[in-house]
Queue: 3 jobs
Job 1
Amino acid sequence: MQNPPDLRPDLAPKLRLADPARPGQPTIGMVSLGCPKALVDSERILTRLRAEGYAISADYAGAEAVIVNTCGFLDSAKAESLEAIGEALRENGRVIVTGCLGAEPDYITGAHPRVLAVTGPHQYEQVLDAVHAAVPPQPDPFVDLLPASGVTLTPRHYSYLKIAEGCNHRCKFCIIPDMRGRLTSRPAHAVIREAERLVEAGVKELLVISQDTSAYGADIAHAEERGHRAHIEDLARDLGSLGAWVRLHYVYPYPRVRNLIPLMAEGLVLPYLDIPFQHAHPDTLKRMARPSAQTKTLEEIAAWRAVCPDIALRSTFIVGYPGETEAEFAYLLDWLEEAQLDRVGCFQYENVAGARSNALPDHVPDEIKQDRWDRFMAKAQAISEARLAAKVGSLQQVIVDEIDEGGIATCRTTADAPEIDGNLFIDEDTGGLSPGDIVTVEVDEAGEYDLWGRLAP
C-alpha cells in the first residue's frame, strides 16, 4: 500500500519559474519534490546558481541540465522521486539528483544509472560542483543581477523561512534523522537578517519551518549573538516585530509551546499552530516512540484556546500503524471529536526502508488501513465544515494569493497556510486588489474546507 501524493499533506507549493535567459547564458532546470523544507533547499541552490550567472529554465527543453531535488520520507515519495528522475532523463537527458533520497545513491543509480551525479540533502557545494562539471558557468557581472531576496519559488508575497535542519527525535516510522542528521539550528541573528531582507523585498508572510520548530536553539544552548537569542519564543517575538504575518509550522506540543500563545493573542504571531500529533492513543504513541508529553494534548489545547480563542490548529495523523487495534483507532476518532482541530491531514502507514517500525509485529492489512482512513477523513471533514460554518457573518483578515481572469480573488485567512489548508474566495468588487494585499472580509458562505466572502466596507 502506497500513499498517492494527494494523501501526503506536507507537500510544498508548485515551483514558479519565469526568468528568461540572455543569449548564450547557461541554463539549468529544477524539479523540486517533497516538503517546504526541500523547497527552501531548492531556492538556496538556485540562488547560488543565479549568482554565478546561470539562468533558470521553467521547462526541460530550455535547460542544458536538470536538477531533481528528491523526497525520501515514504516509499511512495521515493517512487515519485524515481519517476521524476526518469521523466527528466527522458525529456532532457542530463540529470543531477539531490535531496533526501540522495542519501541512498545506490538506490538511485540502480534505477537510473545515467544520472550525472547524486548528492544528499543540503549538500549545496556538491550540487554546484556537479552543475559546474555538466554546464560550465559563464557569468556576466554587468547583466546577471541577483534580486536582494535571492531566487524564490513561491509567489512574491510569501516565503518559507527555515530556522533549523535535522531532528533529535527517533520516531520509529521516520528516517529523517538518518537522512538529515540531528538538530542543527541557525544562529538567530542570521534568521532575522534573512527575514528582514525578505520583508524589504515585499514579502508579507513568513512561514517558519524546520523539522522540530519548538526545539529551535536547544542544540546551541539557546545562544545569544548580536542581540538575538536562539529560542523559539524570542525568535517569534523578533520576527513579529517586522510587520509581516508570521506562521509557525511543525511545532511539537512541548509544555513550553504555551509561552507562544500570548504572542498570538497580542497579534505578534498568527494564531496558528501546525502540530504533528500523528496519533492520540498512548499505546500507539509509545510504539511510534513519540514524546510522552503528547498524551496530555487535550489539556494543552484547552489551555491554548483559553488564552487565544481564535487560534487555528492543524495537524497530520497516521492510520493503520503496526499494532493499531480497532479500539485504538476508535480512541483516535473520539479524541479528534473532542480536540476539534481546524485543519487535518492524514495518510496511511507504509513501511519505509530503514525505519524501525518495519520490524514491529501486527501490521494492519491494506483494506483496514483504507477503511480507517475513510472514516477518519469523514470525521475530520464534518468537524471542518462545522467550524467554518461558525465563521459565517464574521470579519476575517485575509491575504490575497491570486486573482483569476474572471476577477475571482483566491485568498487565505490567518487560519490557512498556502497549498495545505483552505481558501477564502471573493467574487465581486476585486478590481482594486493585487496579490499580497491584506484586507478585511465579511464571510457570507462556508463549505467543507473553504469560505466565501465580500470586502468589508
Job 2
Amino acid sequence: MTSQTALQRRIDGKRDDLIALTQDLVRIPTLNPPGENYREICEFLRERLAPRGFTCDLIRAHGTPGDSEKYPRWNIVARHEGARAGDCVHFNSHTDVVEVGAGWTVDPFGGELKDGKIFGRGTCDMKGGLAASIIAVEAFIEEHPDFAGSIEISGTADEETGGYGGVAYLAEQGHYKNVQHVIIPEPLQKDRICLGHRGVWWAEIETHGEIAHGSMPFLGDCAVRHMGAVMHEMEESLFPALALKKTAMPVVPVGARSSTMNINSLHGGQTEPEPDFTGLPSACVPDHAKMIIDRRYLMEESKAEVESEVRAVLEKVASERENFRYDLNEIWSVEPTMAPKDSAVVTSVAKAIGDILGKEAEYVVSPGTYDQKHIDRIGKLKNCIAYGPGLLELAHKPDEYVGVDDMLDSAKVMALVLVDLLLPKDLQSTAR
C-alpha cells in the first residue's frame, strides 16, 4: 500500500464523519445579516479541533461593521504545529450564510442527506468546503504526524457582507505575515482552481427634490421622477456600454466576462411603515430617492474609470432636467485580484487535481469577490486561491446542496497539497 493510497483510504473511511460534520455546521444558523450564532459555531469548531492537537484562538473583531454586543463578530483560528520548521498552510472558510429566501422544499437548516447530497443553507457556500478541509487536515496529520511546518484552519465572519469582521480584521492584526499558502474552499467545483475575482465598486446615488402636497405636485419637485430619469439613461447608455467590455480573465460564468452592474436597491419618498401599521400613507411629493448600485469591473478597468462612467450618466441627466440635484457616494470597493498561475499553491493544487481526478485543472476567476481580496490587499500575500467542492450556481439559491462525493474528492486534493508543501522532498514521491 502506497502512502497516497493510505491517505485516500483514510479520507474515504471518514465519509460518515464528513457527512455528520457538515450537517452539524449547517444546523447552526449563522445568518448574516445580522450575524447570528458566530460564537456558537466558533466554539463548535474549537471543541472539534482542540482535542486533535490544535491550538485554538477565538478572536472578536471589535469595532468592525456590524459588531455589537448583540451580534459580536467572532472568528476562530486553529493551528497545528508540525515536527520541525517549515511553511504554514492556511485553510480559510467563512462561517456566515445569507438569508434563506423563499422556494425551499426542505428544511434550510436541517442538513438533510438525500441521494448523496446534503441540503441546507450554507452547504455549498461554504460549510461543505469547511468540513472537507477539516477532514483533509485531520487525515493528513494522522498519516504524516512528522510533517514540517504548520497547518491552520480558520472560520471567519462576515464574508457575505464584505469580510471586514473576519479575514480583513485578521489581516489588519498581522495574522497572515507568518502564512505562506492560503486555500479558501469556496464552491468553484472540485476540478477548478479559482485564481481570483473581478473588482467591485458599490455606491449610493441620491436624487433630491422638494416636498409638497401630493394633490399639487407642480408646487414641489419629485425626486423619484429624477431617479427614474437616471435609470432611463442607464438603460440607454451605460448598460449597453458595459456589455461591450470584455476581459481576458477566465471569469465564470461566461456572462461575467463583461462588465456588469446590478441595481441592488431603490427607495424614494416616505419611509416604509412598520409591518403592523394599518394606516395609509400621507399625500406628499417625495423630496429624496436613493439607489444602491453594485458595479463589478474587470482587470482591464480602473476604479476611477468605473466611477467616472456613473458620474457621466448623472451629469448628462443634470444637463437635461431642470432642478436636477444629486449626490454620489462610494460605499466600498475592492480592486480585481489574481494569483499568478505559477505560484506554489496553484501548481500544487493543479498537480493534486491531476492525481485525484485524472484530469487537468481548469483555471477560473470568480464573478464576485470573496476573502482573497483581504489576504492580497491587507495581508500582502499573493499565494492565495479558492478551491473547494460545490457548484457556484447553487450559492444563495433555495434547496442549496453539496455532494458528498465532491467533498471527499476535494478533501483528497487538499490532503495531497499538504503532502506536496509540508513533506520533505525525498518522501513526496512515495507519498503521492
Job 3
Amino acid sequence: MKIEKTLLISCAILCFLLITSCNKIQRPKKPNVLLICLDDLRPELKSFGAAYISSPNIDALATEGISFQKHFVNAPSCGPSRYTLLTGQYGPAGNNALFLRANKIEEGTEEINQSMPEWFRTHGYTTVSIGKVSHHPGGRGGSDWNDSTIIEMPSAWDKHLMPVAEWEHPRGMMHGLANGEIRIKSADMDVFQSVEGDDNSYPDGAITDEALKQLRALATLQENPFFLAVGIIKPHLPFGAPKSYYNTYEGVDLPRIEHPQKPEGKTTWHGSGEFMKYNRWGKDPNSNADFADEVRRHYAACVSYADAQVGKVLAELKRTGADKNTIIVLWGDHGWHLGEHAIWGKHSLFEESLHSPLIIRYPGMKSKGATTDAIVETLDIFPTLCDLTGIEMPEFAQGVSLKEIAEYPNTRGHTAVAYKNNASTIRTATHRMTLHQDGFVELYDHTSAENETKNVANKHPELVKELKNALRAKMK
C-alpha cells in the first residue's frame, strides 16, 4: 500500500509539472514594445524620399518594417500631438494638454481613461520612459521641469527618466546647445550651431546613453515584457549638432523650397514666431536664400544626429537579443515647415506641419521593407500596439489598428484630422479641408498642381459639406 501510495503521489507531482510546463509553452511572453519619438521631424529621411539626407539607421529600420508615407499627426504642436499618441484620444490643443489631464485625475471629479503606457502597465508590462516622450522631457512640471510633485502622466511609468548632464535640468536640456549652454533669453541664443565634439556634446547623447542602460536592464530581467519609450529631442530648435554631421551637407545641393510664398487670403499661416525669436544675425530666410539654405543644412545635420542616436538604440536592442521579440515604432511628433508657405516652424494646419514619419516593425511580419500610401494618423498607434501584442483593445481609443495595412500595404487607409484652438482640418486621399472657428473654409486639391496654394472651396460646395460632416463625426 505504501508503494502504491508513493507511486500515486509521484504521478500526481509529475502530472502537475507537465501541466505547468505545457501552460508555460502555451503562454509565451508577450512581445516587448520599443517606441522611439523624434521631435519636429518632418519626413526628411531618405526612406521617405529626401534623397540628399543621410539617415542610414532609420532607413535600415524601414527595410525591416513598413513605412507609412502618409502618416499625419492630430495636432501641429508637441504637447497636443503627444497627448493623442499617449492617450489614443483627441484632447486640448495646447502644449499643457497632458498636465490638464493630470489635474483632472487629481481632482477626481470625472473618470479619466488610462493612458497608453498605463494600459500596458495594467496588462503586465514594465513601462520605462527616457527623454522627451510627453511634452516635458522627464514628465515633470515646475519652473525647471523637475518638480517630482507635479507629474505629467500619473500612473503611466514604472520609471520616467531624464538625464540632464551639464545642462542642469530638463528645461535646460530641451533647448540646449553644445556643452551645457542653456536658453535663458531666446534672442541671445543662436538659432543654429555646429561645434566640434562627440555626440555627448549635445543633449541627446545623454538621453541615448540612459536609454542603452535601461534597455540592457530590461532585456536582462526577462520577467515581464517591457514597454520602453525613448524620446530624442532633435531636430527641435535650436538646430545644434556636432560638426561632423553638418560636414555631411557642405556642398550638397538642396532641393528647391516648394511654394515659398506667403499664402493669399485667410489661412492658418503665422509669422514663425518660435523660429524668429532666436538670434538670426539680422537675417530672414524668407528674403535671404543663402541664409535659408544654411538653416536647412543645420536642420539636416540635426536629423542625421538624431538618426545616429536611433542607430545606437537599435544596435543595443539587437545585441541583447530582445529584437527577436520586440515591436518597434518610430514616430515623428509633427512636421516642420522649411520655408514652404513662408513659414519656418510648425503650428499651421498645412501639410508640412502635420505630415511626419511613421515606421512599424514587428516580429514575423511578412511585408518587410514595404511602403504604404494609406492615410493614417497618430491616434492609430495605441490600438495597433494592442493588436500586435495581443492585449485587450480599449474601447475608448479613437483610432484604428494598422495591422491589416502592415500585412497588406495596398489596403486603403482612412481620413486624418488635426486641430488648433481656432481651426480644424481633415485630410483625405485627394483633398484637405480646413474649417475655421468662424466658419471660413479652406479646400485644397492634392491631385492638382496647385496643391495647398489655391483655395477651391467655392467651386466644390457639396464636397465641403461632405467633409464638414466627416470632420464633425470623426471628432465627436
